[in-house]
Amino acid sequence: MTILRPKINVLDENHKNEIFQEAKLILETQGIFIENQEAIEMFEKKGLNHDGAKYFIPSDLVEKSLDSVPRQITLFDREGEEHLTLKEDQVHFDPGSAAIFILDENTGEIREGKSKDFIRFSKIVEQLDYIDAQSTALIYQDVPNDAQDWHRLYLALSNCFKPIVTGTFRKESFSIMREILLACRTSEDDLARKPLAIFDACPSPPLKWSDLTTQSLIDAAKSMIPSEFVSMPLSGASAPITLIGSITQHCAECLAGVVIVQLANKGAPLIWGGSPAVFDMKHGTTPMGAIETMMINLGDVEMGKFLHLPTHAYMSLTDAKIPDGQAGFEAGMGALLGGLGGVNMISGPGMMDFESTQSVEKLIIDNEIIGMVKRLLRGIDDYGTPYASEILKDYEDKEELLSHPSTLKYFRKELFLPSPIIDRMTRDSWKQDGSKSVRKRAKERALRLAEKPSIKPIDESLVKELDRITEQSMKGT
Questions:
Q1: CATH fit for domain 67-378, picks 3.20.20.480, 3.30.1360.120, 1.10.150.120, 3.30.479.10
Q2: Which long-range contacts (CB under 8 A, 24 or more apart) does 452-458 make?
Q3: What angle do CA 307, 200, 58 make, to 5 degrees?
Q4: pLDDT at 44 over 90
Q5: What are the boundaries of each domain within the chain?
């Protein structure tokens, strides 16, 4: 029995309610900008008032829409086996999506990614025990621009069995991506019952759902594919400088998303998430490793939990350009706070440089951080009294407890046993092993993981079907 699951909160119940009420008021009186024609038609069918492209959403429609959202989402792997569930305080991790660069482990340079980089990245993600889902993590430049979103999904599912966080860059891509997902299932109903992918959709701050992202919400809802809101208020630039003001804006933007999804298909799944940041007044950057950014994320997630919805946040990130000490403490703080906050899906392991760069070295280091976080979240177990006195009596006979039955029975459960990239050797042993840094050990582990056979090899018939879809779709680019 676990005595207590460690938790953290940044908002009390009174402030959560006040934020919720004000967010509804913003939608009712200030409105939300909508560019998508299908969403406009849905709003006008409901008789919503508008001023040009600004639509005013009444509170009762927000409340009604919230009532029909599923309270949990179970994701299945490529082969259709249950893999993870987003609910309550269950915490899962995936690499962040859509980095435009990769840190080359051999040269130490940040460069544009290639498809071979993404294939290798996906294969390594499959081998990492504590990374629960994969993502379309890297935009690579050796395919046509029109194919970059759906081609990443194709390569990801071809090289890793884990469920995936993805998204569209073009409205026309959704049908191709849906066809790729259907290739992994027996029917449309099977895909709806066993979702394999989450589609990110990013509103534009402040208070705007663009044509592309709104269409993604609508298309995903029709197929019962989970949408993940990635609201991005930038405190001091496109959102209030106050943290609570940014949390309130995030809430309003996501509530508008809830309405769009439920109008498109009542009961469609969605995830309340985001990637907020504070604006760095000194450098003009968007620091994802700033403690205030993490605090906004925690507040956003608490609002999602207040509304009984599955939650997401971009955390475990760093603004450093190499996997150094800054990368370690920023990623570690983010992963730990996200875990304590009970974020259902945390995106960010592997990501650096303001979400622009993926690093395999950091990904492997982050995997160890996540393992430690998950151990903390398991809490302290009560195996029944007496807790220590009977064990200590036996110490008198042997003057050691290494061979004690309780040690042998519980040490694997009680202790997190890290991989060799974590240095717990004596100094002499460390020197004999080459005096390697954690970055060096991560690089060596990446070489081994990339060459390991797949945990769940893909069926040859599925390979042929995915290749067929890709070849056919390429002809249209």
A1: 3.20.20.480
A2: 452/123, 452/127, 454/123, 454/126, 454/159, 454/161, 455/126, 455/127, 455/161, 456/77, 456/78, 456/79, 456/126, 456/161, 458/78, 458/157, 458/158, 458/159, 458/161
A3: 45
A4: yes
A5: 67-378
Hey, what are 386's tokens? 């007496």
Q: How far is Cα 441 from Cα 423, in angstroms, rounded to an integer?
A: 9
Closest to 416 (Cα-Cα) out of 404, 427, 424? 424
d(CA 107, CA 91): 35
Residue 21: which of 52, 63, 50 has the closest Cα? 63
Q: What's the token pair of residue 440?
A: 């060096």
Token couple for 261: 């999804």
Give me 199's structure tokens: 């589609």
Task: Respond yes or no on whether the N-terminal peptide bond of residue 206 is cis (omega within 30° of 0).
Answer: yes
Whole-structure pTM value? 0.97
pLDDT in tens, 274-311: 999 999 999 999 999 999 999 999 999 999 999 999 99
- Residue the block writes with tokens 């009680």: 414
pLDDT in tens, 416-475: 999 999 999 999 999 999 999 999 999 999 999 999 999 999 999 999 999 999 999 998
